[in-house]
Amino acid sequence: MSLIKVKGSSITGALAAVDGSALTGIAGGITQVSTWRLNSNFQGNSMPMTSNWEEPDTYGIANGAAIGSDMVISSGVWTFPVTGIWKIEFYGEFFLQGDSRYVQPIIETTIDNSSFNEAAKSTGHITESQSDSTLANALSVCIFDVTNVSTHKCRLGVSVSNTSVYTLGHTSTNKTQVNFIRLGDT
C-alpha cells in the first residue's frame, strides 16, 4: 500500500502501473547513433567523398553503431538503417600552407534516391600565419526527415577555393567526421 499526499490530505491505495511501451522518439530516448571518420588526408574538392571512411575503433571512441544499427555507405551515398527524424553533423578539418578564401563541408540529401540538393553548407577560411601550415574547421548540420530508407539518403563532400587545401583524416583520432543521430519518429 502506498501513501500519497495531496495538498495536506492523504490518499491510500495501490498505485497504477505505468506502461512505457508506447513511448517513441525523444520521450523514449535516442535509439540510433552512428559515427564515422575520414581515415586519411586528401587534397582539393570532393563531392561526394567516396572512400576512406571508417568507424572509430580507438581510445574508447564510440565504435560505429554506438546505438542501434550501422549507417551504410556505397559510392559516397549514405543509407539510413531506419526511418525517423535524423540529425546529421558533418565536421570538416582542413590545413594549408597558404590562403584559401573558403573551406566548406557540405551535406546533400535526396528524397528520390537520385536528385541530390545542398541541405547544409558552412564556411571557414584559411589565412596563412607564421609561414607555416594553418588549420581551419567548419561544421555543417541539418535535420533530415527520413520517411523511406530506400529513397531518402545523403552524401557528404568538401569544397575549397584553393585546391591545395588538405581535408584532414586520421585512423586513430577523429578529425573530419560525421555523426548520424536519430532524434525521433517521422
What descriptors fit this protein?
186 residues; Jelly Rolls; eight-stranded antiparallel sheet
Strand content: over 45%
Q: What is the number of beta strands?
A: 16
What letter string, H or E per element, gives the SSE order? EEHEEEEEEEEEEEEEE
Largest sheet: 8 strands, antiparallel
CATH fold node name: Jelly Rolls
Any low-confidence stretches, pLDDT <50, length ≥5? none
Mean pLDDT: 88
Distance separating the two termini: 41 Å
Outline type: globular
Structure classification: mainly beta
Total domain units: 1
The total of helices stands at 1
What does this molecule look like?
The longest helix is centred in the N-terminal third of the chain and has 4 residues, at 25-28. The chain is mainly beta and 186 residues long. Strands 3, 4, 5, 6, 9, 13, 15 and 16 form an 8-stranded antiparallel beta sheet that branches. Strands 7, 8, 10, 11, 12 and 14 form a 6-stranded antiparallel beta sheet that branches. It has 1 helix and 16 strands. The chain has one domain (21-184): Jelly Rolls (Sandwich).
What can be said about this structure in brief?
The protein has 1 helix and 16 strands. The protein has one helix at 25-28, and strands at 2-6, 9-13, 32-38, 42-43, 53-54, 65-67, 72-74, 77-79, 84-96, 100-110, 117-121, 124-126, 134-146, 153-160, 166-167, 177-184.
Give a topology summary.
Elements: E1 2-6, E2 9-13, H1 25-28, E3 32-38, E4 42-43, E5 53-54, E6 65-67, E7 72-74, E8 77-79, E9 84-96, E10 100-110, E11 117-121, E12 124-126, E13 134-146, E14 153-160, E15 166-167, E16 177-184
Antiparallel strand pairs: 1-2, 3-5, 3-6, 3-16, 4-15, 7-8, 8-14, 9-13, 9-15, 9-16, 10-11, 10-12, 10-14
